[in-house]
């Protein structure tokens, strides 16, 4: 099931100061995952542009990188989405923008739209760099959701390929789940008991998921489960930022409508302030 | 889980104590009730009705433990406005409506309402209320009734009134003013004189007793009329049967008017804020450290207010001063609130005619003093020490409340706080973007110690403190908690103050509460509040020692002790002692420690009561580590009061063999057999032949002191000597 889930990696190429870093990151990942790299440029084809990209790619081509460069004009969001589908891209890499003078990252409007509409997995990079920064610690959500199993497997796959040392599976326990409001000492005791019970239940559920993942991927990786109390989808980002995780792996959102953007929840919160690199598994 | 206690037998066992403290509280509630009602232009009896209805309903249905309910100080101003603009009958209707709103607040679980206001703004509002009370009643206290449009005018005219009073020619007025001034002096100096017999009766009751005695003296001894002018006596108080049969009319005719709903809103706002603040403060005093169910209390207070409105009473609120007295007199559960109401009924039935012998100025002196407490200069000094911007918030709220009323006043306070936050951060988007975000993350660390970690992002001010509070409230206080602000760009004073309170409750209950991540803020100095709150400037008064401190230093050299004059905030070792159950130790200083570290003599500052009823006391004490286990007990000189207390269930342990000791000493403790075994013949003889000290054991160490004041150097030597000899007798 987990043999090469990212067979084709796509990246949008714009001639910005980040060009080199973006391409380096994408190419490196393609080599790690042994996948094909599709570079998508929205705009006219020109040999000059092509040469520039090839120059950057040169060290990776020497390592037998399988790549393809696509030029197409049109609306950026549509172009990238349609080509991704056409080329059967399974992982699309997008770069985030950094707020000037602040150590805060957010997504540009194009990247945001793509994230919402894409049918493939998405990797949001907050700080692409030319040098490789090792990925030490992966945080993954352990929500009670049919997609979670796939997400956790993917997290192990990625950790295995990137040789990260540690995975933390985070179970978010919301206030609604505890369902006991604390008024006095009595209700406090009750809510503590309920919380403990939920925690045990969540732990065992996650343990079961882990047990089903092939040992080849889980061995050598330190696994930890952590329950946190907070808002679903938001607090996991807060946690990832707090433990200085290098990658946050999350389920793809169920469906986003206009209301979700007005009253942000789940993934929308993460998109508005990226805590770290985020991988959204479709 | 802890085993379930036998609640009923415990309740019955504690009943005498609660009846006693309910009685003491009713002694204050009576004069205060009369005074507060008179100050709000309502019939004098309305205040007592409020206390009775509130006491009965809230004690049965409420969710707090040691609070007392009744007419509140804060409501005087609003009630006054309601009665003058709407008339008494419509005002009752407004009170009923505000009761309904209070109940709704309770059902909507708005018990955290008071957290949504910046603390300096609330302080400003309370100070304004204090000035409103003080400004109006001050003139009556001097026998000079005036009526002005504006509160500020009342304050401005205070010097004129004093001047007038000095030139009175009417003897009736002179007597009235003298009664007022003497009463004020009693209120001011009562807490300074810590005499057991004097303290048995609360200050307001002394005023009542003295003025009734004065009136009888003229009537029975001199056969003259009471010399105080008739206008300055309490108007006729209806007898109990009249109160129950002649219910006041409640008129809902004004329900459509804006003024009516303005009054309803202000009454509700002030009643809820005053109650919630008081409940929070009283929880800190509760010797059993229970948590109050504020939402349930709000519902009960709302219901009480509805009942009280229909029966001719005012808004029922939780009151801090009376609750503090309740705790100090041994109240342990809600029954004391019930008995306070019960004794008020008894007073009205028996003495309602005597109450008309109280001069109005005497009663108003009580209110002037409460007003002063709310707006005392100490408060302004404290706020200034937190930061200049807090002073701005305070004064904006204070002045706009005085000028435009409470609702506009508190709104102005909130607004100016927000603007100040914007200016300090030079950043509006920080607040606008992140206001709705759930910025608090809590999780339990999985290592062996398993403490709770709470991380806060973006900003944390009064506007979103409820999110943090919600998380903190879900942690029971025996745990270790770390609150991390390293991802938070701005923390305001309200939050720091509240967290400080949490810190207090956690340490009291054996947990630990740490605030981390503010050091960084220190560095970029963007955080004036946090900075001053977390890094208190250390005070070294070692360089200029006072005469007493020099003497202490000499004693230290003489006795081979170590002396340190600095403030030491590590006072956790005192928490175990019975004496400190209802008191908050602030710090110890002037420590004299012996080489083995077992014997320690120190001056201590502690406080009794909370909020506006707070009294700060300094005493010298001796602490001895026994190194052996001993029973928990407390030993004191037996006095008349102890005999009274004994009736209320504080039983004295007596020894058949040592009649003299049993007669002279008052020994109490839970485990009688162990205590009797501990008090060997030698020990009893030691106590018999030595001066009296208050002595307490917490099971492993002793606390010894004599008077509730700083000891002189001679007394310190005596205390040291006593302690040393006692230690050798015990071991």
Q: Summed up, what is this model?
A:
The complex is a heterodimer of chains A (282) and B (731). Chain A is of the alpha/beta class and 282 residues long.
Termini separation of chain B: 37 Å
Class by alpha and beta content of chain B = alpha+beta
Q: How does the overall form of chain A come out from the CA principal axes?
A: elongated
What spatial form of chain B do the alpha-carbon principal axes imply?
globular
- Calculate the terminal CA-CA distance of chain A, rounded to whole Å: 15 Å
Segments of chain A where pLDDT lies below 50 for 5+ residues?
none
Compute the average pLDDT of chain A: 76
Helical fraction of chain A? 40-55%
Q: Helices and strands of chain A, in N-to-C order?
A: EHEHEHEEEHEEHEHHHEHEHHE
Helix count, DSSP H or I runs of 4 or more residues of chain A: 11
Number-wise, the strands of chain B total 14
Beta strand % of chain A: 15-25%
For the biggest β-sheet of chain A, the strand order reads 3-2-1-4-7-12-11-8-9-10
Low-confidence stretches of chain B: 522-543
Radius of gyration of chain B: 27 Å
Strand fraction of chain B: 5-15%
Written overview of the protein:
- The complex is a heterodimer of chains A (282) and B (731).
- With 282 residues, chain A is α/β, with parallel strands linked by helices.
- Chain A contains eleven helices and twelve strands.
- In chain A, helix 1 packs across helix 2 (47-61) and helix 3 runs parallel beside helix 4 (109-117).
- Chain A is elongated.
- Chain B is globular, with a radius of gyration of 27 Å.
- With 731 residues, chain B is of the alpha+beta class.
- Chain B has an eight-stranded antiparallel beta sheet with strand order 7-8-9-10-14-13-11-12.
Topology:
The complex is a heterodimer of chains A (282) and B (731).
Chain A: E1 8-12, H1 19-33, E2 36-42, H2 47-61, E3 67-72, H3 76-86, E4 91-95, E5 97-98, E6 105-106, H4 109-117, E7 121-125, E8 137-141, H5 148-162, E9 166-173, H6 175-178, H7 185-211, H8 215-218, E10 222-229, H9 235-242, E11 247-251, H10 258-262, H11 266-272, E12 277-281
Parallel strand pairs in A: 1-2, 1-4, 2-3, 4-7, 8-9, 8-11, 9-10, 11-12
Antiparallel strand pairs in A: 5-6, 7-12
Helix pairs in contact in A: 1-2, 3-4
Chain B: H1 7-39, H2 45-61, E1 68-70, H3 75-86, H4 88-107, H5 119-141, H6 151-156, H7 158-166, H8 171-190, H9 196-200, H10 203-221, H11 240-245, H12 258-285, H13 294-310, E2 317-319, H14 320-328, H15 335-351, H16 360-374, H17 377-386, H18 388-404, H19 406-425, H20 429-434, E3 440-444, E4 452-460, H21 465-473, E5 480-491, H22 493-508, E6 512-516, H23 519-524, H24 528-534, H25 547-559, E7 562-564, E8 583-593, E9 599-608, E10 615-625, E11 632-637, H26 640-647, H27 659-664, E12 665-668, H28 672-678, H29 681-688, E13 694-698, E14 701-705, H30 713-730
Helix pairs in contact in B: 1-2, 1-10, 1-14, 1-15, 1-16, 2-13, 2-15, 3-4, 3-12, 4-12, 4-13, 5-16, 5-18, 5-19, 8-10, 8-16, 12-14, 17-18, 18-19
């Amino acid at each position: 099931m987990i043999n090469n889930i990212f067979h084709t990696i796509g990246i949008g190429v714009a001639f910005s100061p980040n060009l080199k870093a973006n391409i380096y990151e994408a190419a490196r990942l393609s080599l790690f995952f042994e996948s094909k790299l599709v570079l998508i440029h929205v705009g006219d084809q020109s040999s000059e542009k092509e040469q520039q990209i090839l120059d950057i790619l040169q060290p990776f081509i020497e390592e037998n990188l399988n790549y393809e460069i696509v030029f197409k004009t049109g609306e950026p969001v549509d172009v990238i989405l349609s080509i991704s589908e056409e080329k059967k891209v399974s992982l699309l890499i997008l770069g985030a923008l950094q707020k000037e003078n602040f150590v805060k990252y957010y997504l540009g409007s194009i990247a945001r739209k793509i994230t919402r509409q894409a049918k493939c997995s998405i990797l949001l990079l907050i700080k692409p760099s030319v040098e490789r920064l090792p990925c030490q610690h992966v945080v993954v959500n352990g929500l009670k959701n049919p997609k979670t199993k796939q997400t956790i497997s993917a997290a192990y796959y990625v950790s295995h390929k990137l040789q990260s040392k540690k995975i933390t599976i985070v179970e978010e326990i919301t206030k609604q789940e505890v369902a006991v409001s604390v008024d006095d000492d009595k209700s406090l005791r009750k809510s503590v008991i309920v919380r403990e019970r939920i925690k045990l239940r969540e732990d065992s559920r996650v343990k079961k998921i882990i047990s089903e993942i092939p040992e080849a991927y889980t061995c050598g990786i330190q696994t930890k489960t952590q329950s946190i109390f907070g808002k679903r989808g938001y607090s996991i980002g807060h946690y990832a930022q707090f433990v200085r995780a290098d990658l946050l792996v999350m389920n793809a959102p169920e469906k986003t409508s206009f209301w979700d953007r007005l009253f942000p929840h789940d993934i929308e919160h993460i998109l508005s302030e990226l805590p770290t690199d985020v991988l959204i598994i479709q | 889980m802890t085993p379930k206690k036998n609640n009923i037998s415990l309740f019955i066992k504690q009943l005498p104590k609660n009846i006693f403290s309910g009685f003491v509280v009713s002694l204050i509630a009576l004069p205060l009730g009369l005074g507060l009602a008179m100050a709000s232009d309502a019939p004098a009896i309305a205040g007592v009705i409020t206390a009775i209805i509130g006491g009965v309903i809230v004690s049965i249905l409420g969710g707090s433990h040691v609070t007392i309910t009744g007419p509140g100080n804060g409501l005087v101003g609003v009630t006054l406005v309601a009665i003058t603009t709407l008339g008494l009958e419509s005002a009752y209707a407004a009170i009923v409506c505000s009761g309904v709103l209070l109940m709704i607040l309770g059902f909507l679980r708005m018990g955290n309402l008071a957290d949504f206001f910046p603390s300096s703004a609330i302080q400003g509002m309370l100070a304004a209320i204090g000035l409103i009370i003080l400004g109006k009643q001050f003139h009556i206290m001097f026998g000079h009734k005036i009526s002005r449009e504006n509160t500020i005018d009342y304050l401005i005219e205070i010097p004129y009134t004093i001047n007038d009073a000095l030139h009175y020619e009417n003897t009736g007025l002179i007597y009235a003013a003298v009664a007022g001034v003497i009463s004020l002096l009693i209120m001011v100096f009562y807490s300074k004189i810590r005499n057991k017999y004097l303290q048995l009766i609360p200050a307001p009751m002394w005023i009542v007793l003295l003025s009734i005695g004065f009136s009888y003296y003229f009537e029975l001894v001199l056969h003259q009329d009471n010399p105080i002018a008739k206008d300055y006596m309490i108007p006729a108080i209806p007898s109990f049967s009249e109160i129950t049969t002649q219910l006041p009319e409640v008129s809902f005719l004004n329900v459509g008017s804006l003024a009516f709903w303005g009054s309803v809103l202000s009454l509700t706002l002030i009643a809820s804020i005053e109650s919630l603040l008081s409940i929070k403060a009283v929880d800190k005093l509760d010797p059993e450290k229970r948590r109050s169910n504020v939402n349930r209390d709000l519902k009960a207070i709302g219901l009480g207010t509805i009942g009280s409105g229909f029966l001719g009473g005012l808004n029922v609120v939780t009151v801090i001063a009376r609750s503090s007295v309740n705790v100090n007199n041994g109240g342990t559960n809600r029954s004391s609130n019930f008995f306070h109401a019960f004794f008020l009924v008894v007073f009205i039935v028996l003495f309602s005619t005597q109450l008309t012998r109280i001069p109005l100025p005497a009663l108003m002196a009580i209110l002037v003093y409460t007003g002063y407490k709310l707006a005392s200069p100490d408060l302004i000094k404290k706020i200034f020490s937190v930061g200049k911007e807090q002073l701005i918030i305070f004064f904006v709220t204070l002045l706009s409340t005085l000028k435009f009323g409470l609702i506009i006043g508190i709104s102005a306070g909130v607004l100016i706080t927000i603007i100040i936050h914007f200016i300090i951060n030079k950043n509006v988007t920080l607040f606008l973007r992140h206001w709705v975000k759930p910025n608090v993350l809590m999780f339990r660390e999985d290592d062996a110690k398993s403490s709770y970690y709470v991380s806060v992002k973006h900003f944390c001010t009064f506007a979103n403190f409820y999110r943090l509070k919600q998380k903190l409230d879900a942690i029971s206080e025996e745990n270790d908690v770390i609150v991390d602000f390293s991802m938070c760009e701005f923390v305001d004073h309200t939050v720091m103050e509240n967290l400080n309170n949490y810190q207090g409750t956690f340490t009291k209950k054996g947990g630990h509460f740490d605030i981390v991540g503010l050091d960084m803020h220190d560095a970029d100095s963007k955080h004036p509040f946090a900075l001053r709150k977390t890094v208190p400037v250390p005070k070294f008064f070692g360089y200029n020692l006072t005469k007493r401190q020099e003497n202490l230093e000499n004693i230290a050299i003489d006795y081979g002790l170590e002396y340190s004059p600095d403030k030491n905030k590590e006072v956790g070792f005192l928490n175990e002692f019975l004496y400190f159950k209802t008191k908050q130790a602030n710090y110890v200083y002037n420590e004299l420690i012996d080489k083995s570290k077992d014997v320690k003599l120190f001056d201590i500052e502690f406080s009794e009561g909370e909020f506006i009823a707070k009294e700060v006391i300094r005493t010298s004490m001796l602490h001895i580590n026994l190194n052996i286990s001993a029973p928990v007990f407390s030993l004191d000189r037996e006095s008349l009061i102890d005999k009274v207390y004994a009736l209320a269930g504080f039983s004295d342990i007596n020894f058949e063999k040592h009649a003299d000791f049993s007669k002279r000493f008052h020994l109490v403790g839970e485990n009688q057999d162990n205590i009797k075994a501990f008090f060997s013949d030698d020990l009893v003889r030691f106590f018999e032949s030595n001066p009296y000290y208050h002595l307490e054991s917490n099971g492993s160490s002793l606390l010894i002191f004599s008077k509730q004041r700083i000891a002189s150097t001679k007394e310190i030597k005596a205390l040291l000597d006593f302690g040393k000899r006692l230690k050798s007798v015990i071991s």
